[in-house]
Amino acid sequence: MASNIPVFRSQFSSPNEEALGRGRRPVVFDILGPDWETSILPEDLRLVLHVNPQSMSIKYARVVTRIQTQGGYVEQHWGDGSQNIDFDMVTGGFMRLYTGLSNITGTKYGGGRRETIAYDKFLDALALFHNNGSVFDVNGNIVYQGILKVTFDGGVFLGWFTNFTVTESAEKPYQFTMSAGFEVHKEIQVWRTTLAPASDSSLTYEIPDAETGQIPFDDLGGR
User: Fold this and answer.
1) pLDDT, tens digit, for every residue of 111-127?
2) Which of 71, 149, 155, 207 is a Cys-bridge partner for 30, taking CB atoms 3.0 to 4.6 Å apart?
3) Is residue 16 part of a domain?
4) Quick check: is 83 in a domain?
């Protein structure tokens, strides 16, 4: 039986919104361990923002590897490789039950913005930037360094945040405006085609590493 108690929910209830047939596709953030394969987060826990970023600007550049040989330089051209992603984001409105939008920090006058879903999600994003894939012990020392994973629309980007800016202005008193820079170390793109057999309906292609120019895949795109 459905509850009659009014509640506020985030725009996305799960990182798998699209797979659940809800017509929504969130940007999903994950933290991978040193092997860059295994998530260090619990199975059902991934960071999804309160609302999707307003824009994601992906910058590409030609990946060229120059090798000095006895007869001169040899250039290997690997096509386009992603360098960084610029995010423009907003927290969404700081909305509370019964009191509506709030722009105050305390709870003395009917509840503040710090007790809203939008503010909680903002703190999650800020913590993701501060930790940046690092895992710390109880003394604050880095135990090991992982990497961040950003997934959206079949694209997977591995890297780290380089900057994170939060703007609070009088023109938008009920939300924060955020911008972030993300340096891409590796990109994995997945293309789906109806021509492939049902058991293998997707192909994965990994963009060459910008530093080494190496591709750890065979000519058919398989591992």
Assistant:
1) 788 888 889 999 999 99
2) 149
3) no
4) yes
